[in-house]
Predict the structure.
Amino acid sequence: MNELSDNAYQPDALIAENIEHYLAQHQDKSLLRFITCGSVDDGKSTLIGRLLYDSKMVFEDQLGQLEADSKSVGTQGGELDFALLVDGLSAEREQGITIDVAYRFFSTTARKFIVADTPGHEQYTRNMVTGASTADLAVILIDARKGVLPQTRRHSYIVHLLGIKNVVLAVNKMDLVDYSQDVFDKIVEDYREFASDIGITDFVPIPLSGFRGDNITQAPSDNTSWYTGPSLMSHLEQVEVRGASAGEEPFRMAVQWVNRPNLDFRGFSGQIASGVVKIGDTVRIVPSGRTSVIKTISTFDGDREEAQVAQSVTLVLEDEVDCSRGDVIAASDDPPETSDQFEATIVWMGEEAMKPGRGYWLKLGTQTVTAKVQQPKYEINVDTRAKLAAKTLALNAIGVAELHTEKPITFEPYAENRQMGGFVLIDKLTNATVGAGMLNFSLRRANNVHWQPLEISRADHAAMKNQQPRVLWFTGLSGSGKSTIANAVEKRLSVMNRHTFLLDGDNVRHGLNRDLGFTEADRIENIRRIGEVAKLMTDAGLIVLTAFISPFRAERQMVRDMMPEGEFIEIFVDTPLEVAEERDVKGLYKKARAGELKNFTGIDSPYEPPENPEITVNTVAMTADEAAAAIIEKILPLK
Amino acid sequence: MPRTLTHLERLEAESIHIMREVVATAHKPVMLYSVGKDSAVMLHLARKAFHPSAPPFPLLHVDTTWKFRDMYAMRDRMAETSGMELLVWQNEEAKEQGINPFDHGSLHTDMWKTQGLKQALDHYGFDAAFGGARRDEEKSRAKERVISIRNASHGWNPKAQRPELWNVYNTRLSKGESMRVFPLSNWTELDIWQYIMGEGIDIVPLYLAAPRPTFVHEGQLLMADDVERLERVMGRRPEITTRSVRFRTLGCFPLTGAVESEASTLAEVVQEMLLTTTSERQGRVIDRDEGGAGMEKKKQEGYF
């Protein structure tokens, strides 16, 4: 009972003395995520309960409950059963086992810890793989009485498979082998032998008693004076967190969401998967292969100069390049590969066995595509690592198979980048997550697609036509001579081998816009559609000429805003109303004056002349041909 | 060369990632906004995640009509500041039957909160709802997924939850299913407070100690936020004493126990929290309703 109250949560003395100082100390803690691997019998829950207890995370009232529970349902003969601190759901409390991945939290002055606690019974593979996927470190538990068992190999294999570099070998229940150094040394030697076989080259062995508390927070404990290494807690506090040292990795960020609050801002949001990015860096969009330059790194707290791996940011690029969810923004000189055929290691998690050849959704980063898995090359016996022939993979099986995606995906081998190489498989009918996998390599070797843009860009279209796209937007009163002059300009351009197209009332009003009348709303919509068509044509590389009255400044401005800067050329065909009315080629002014035509520009509907047209032609002073020549003169060069 | 991020930086980046992932794939997301400190942090993170856009979903407040007045004021202010649409849902049935925390005990929570939430989600057809629950709050929450799939009647089946690996979240839904999303899953109580202080996040003043009108009811120290209403429902005027109190959690004022305290700054509140030797949720009556499995049972029935 004394020990109990001594170990209840006790606040750091600094909290009472100087809370500001205490908080400042804790503000910059780092985070370590780790997983504990072992079976029920290894005392895993007990060890985690002990870590919580020894880091003073258990409150008085919880300890009271623990004491009562230990007596009624405990497995330690009435003594404190720390496992009860971490067993959650009532169903499993009754069964005395944990059935899923649970996440526990504790912290010390140095670090915050997130522990993935996974069960050690038959669902262990699925749960352990899940817990290991986010862990920086693994604690592999061994019962000192039993030594290295097949399940130890299993745990170690999965830890290595999931790419965890920091391994602690926790030789637990040392109290039951009289804290014998010989027993400990023998286990460490046994483990070293097969660990190196698996590929685990480095690990930290610690003799422990979760139940008695040896070497949990202080080492060596009185019972293990022969031990010279760190306590479990101090190792967890000091071990270098993965990611911090991996500085040389190239920049990669999968685009999650395009942030577009208005026409002036287009940002690409995502969490950086590796490397560092700075303003001014040249980046490449994969798979299109386009390059651009980082213009700003936008955050709620203001723009930043740079951002790094693990941060969630919004990047703004200098150019209007196509980029959307699923694309990867990467260092331009070292972009990731794309492929549609892979070798992958797959962990099956569905109740129903894998169906080779069936289409599953594959989600990797922010990309979701249909994928078909071939019949496995082999299944891996996780205890012996023997390769077994297999037609499929059942729940908890691990195997290696070829995998084809319906369209290419951007990736990196899992061993190089967890975020770019780890994926889940989703059943298309039930939407359940039925598998997880790690891409080993692409079956099509280095096709270097990223060096050649996959799409024909706007610039490519223009280059093929050897010209600079333009919209020559003629505006002026009815009868001012817009169509006549535009036709003359087009003829001259055609002689110059330019690719052009003329949009006027004749080819637009009868087709695209035949549903529109002459009300103000319809006239606005008329111009909007013409603007959109003109934009598409300039995207195709054409020089577009439009000849419409287009009486309102706002609509002309709207079209101007659709185009890249400099491509919209407003040409004001300046003819006084009386001159136009006098010409009255089509007899329209006469009808309008007679009241037979409503909303006629210049008569009962206003014309707003351009304030700053690029070109003005005065049709009173020059002929249509002279005006055309003057316009050509002004728009050269066209390349 | 990247540096080691602090624990708060890593938690922030993870929460933002989760929110963006859901917004990019859900048809009609919503954020459940309870006006408490966890909601305040969640809303702040949402504003960060989508800046310079406003978060592209509405806020939903499932109202019981018994919240503290300060909470209503804060709610309306935050909706305005964030530029988000605020939806308030009150269960009409509960209103008609006059369900209240004094006469109806746990039925009050069930009808106003659990049923009210289901009604609101069904009414608007939301397929994804962000909530501020944390795994460290309670034992059964430790196993909750970040994306928790609910069936058509909003029930939670702990055996049919999807494995979550790396930062890859499966947000695909079958017909009738919806998801509850917990972007703060990996935050602890202390993380929340540290973040509020570090970021200067606005929270309801009730978290800070001040002289307030209080009365004792069934062993709990409660605040008389609306004396006339209390009198109507209780049939008598409670005996009111002014005490310096604050609240560790915020809910319906007749269900939320106050603690006597002099902590009038955030640092002092955290100091008191860290100096307390009992677990967090003692101030909230709801957990004790049905023994140790109270929260778990509520979750299976569709409570958040």
User: Anything to note?
Assistant: Chain A has four domains: 2-238, 252-331, 337-451, 458-635.
